[in-house]
Specification:
Blueprint (H helix, E strand, L loop, with lengths): L2 H4 L12 H7 L1 H17 L3 E6 L7 H16 L3 E6 L2 H10 L6 E2 L2 E2 L3 H24 L5 E5 L6 E5 L3 E2 L2 E2 L6 E6 L2 H8 L3 E5 L1 E4 L5 E3 L2 H12 L3 E6 L17 E3 H7 L8 H11 L5 E6 L5 H7 L6 E4 L3 H4 L14
Parallel strand pairs: 1-2, 1-13, 2-10, 5-10, 6-11, 13-15, 14-16
Antiparallel strand pairs: 3-4, 6-9, 7-8, 11-12, 15-16
Helix pairs in contact: 5-6, 8-10
Length: 331
């Protein structure tokens, strides 16, 4: 048998892919990176405050994806700060202890006994788990509560319900923010993870502070580029419950007019967004925490997801020279 006869015959199907073909299969990944480049450039060195809550807090895959997103932001040159509540975990612990979960005006009624549970769950359970997930990717995250270093100070909050001020227990209204500890951590390359508990401005009590409100106050005090609020809906609906059309972008004035019509659970989130953009935060966004990597989709893609709130000043809403030209359109 000749040497030619011993050579295997290869069809087009069995021939190895050429270098050009191999490179082509990776092209979509390269395109994703290129799309993200202008957004990464724009956000370099900027502080981003992220309120972690909703279903993302109880679904294991969503928790892991959230931690990956936050670490990606840090390595992409941003300065992420995470603020968390712990509604599902607090409800579960209150049930175990035979205590009733009650909400009024979208806020948890917090008796002294419930406050002990809130403090234990937020600082001892939720925060520790979140710090652990982030630190799987390196020694990055450090947990603190609003009590630590007087980061959040509050006085007793009395919401107005049907025209009357109502006592809902140890619920705090933020009176002061001290960003010193958080800024020190950020300057050291760390990721602060803040539990929404505040020290009292009047006595030695501690207060339960709504995490959406705490995140907005911290974003404003830090001069953050953006506030991101993770929730269990796609964003702010235009005509709920008659339509599931999401408002992709609106101004502070437009949001203020909508507030009286919103469901109670959305009120603290949207009030937080309004406070943030009216106090120097360039954009505030409500995004669907049920979507894996929703943070990266919102910050680093042209389309974005959820609802973005901007200030009424046209200069605040208009794209800056270094930004991508694909800012969202008005609803």
């Amino acid at each position: 048998m000749s040497s030619d006869e011993t050579k295997p015959v290869m069809s087009d199907e069995t021939k190895p892919a050429s270098g050009a073909t191999r490179k082509h299969t990776a092209l979509p990944k390269a395109q994703i990176l290129i799309e993200a480049l202008p957004w990464i450039t724009r956000h370099q060195g900027k502080t981003v405050v992220i309120k972690f809550g909703g279903n993302a807090m109880v679904d294991e895959e969503l928790k892991a994806a959230f931690a990956q997103d936050v670490v990606f932001l840090r390595h992409a040159g941003l300065r992420p700060v995470v603020v968390h509540g712990g509604g599902p975990q607090i409800n579960a612990q209150l049930d175990k202890e035979g205590l009733v979960s009650e909400f009024r005006a979208g806020l948890r009624v917090t008796t002294p006994e419930a406050m002990d549970v809130v403090r234990m769950v937020l600082a001892g359970q939720v925060q520790r788990e979140l710090v652990g997930l982030l630190n799987q990717h390196g020694p990055l995250a450090i947990g603190l509560t609003g009590e630590d270093a007087h980061t959040i100070t509050a006085t007793k909050h009395f919401p107005r319900i049907e025209g009357e001020l109502v006592d809902i227990g140890r619920v705090g209204e933020i009176t002061a923010i001290d960003t010193g500890a958080i800024e020190t951590l950020l300057d050291d390359g760390r990721i602060p993870v803040v539990s929404s508990i505040a020290r009292s401005a009047d006595d030695d009590h501690v207060y339960n502070v709504n995490a959406d409100t705490a995140a907005a106050a911290l974003a404003a005090a830090l001069g953050a580029e953006t506030l991101m609020v993770l929730t269990d809906v796609e964003g702010l609906y235009e005509d709920w419950p008659h339509s599931d059309e999401v408002i992709s972008r609106l101004t502070a004035n437009q949001l203020e007019k909508l507030l009286p019509e919103l469901a109670s659970g959305m009120v603290p989130k949207m009030e937080g967004c309004l406070h943030a953009v009216r106090n120097g935060v360039r954009t505030a966004r409500v995004i669907d925490g049920r979507v894996q990597h929703s943070i990266l989709l919102e910050i680093f893609t042209d389309e974005g997801i959820g609802t973005m709130v901007v200030d009424d000043d046209p200069r605040a809403a208009a794209p800056a020279a270094a930004e991508p030209a694909t800012e969202r359109q008005n609803p």
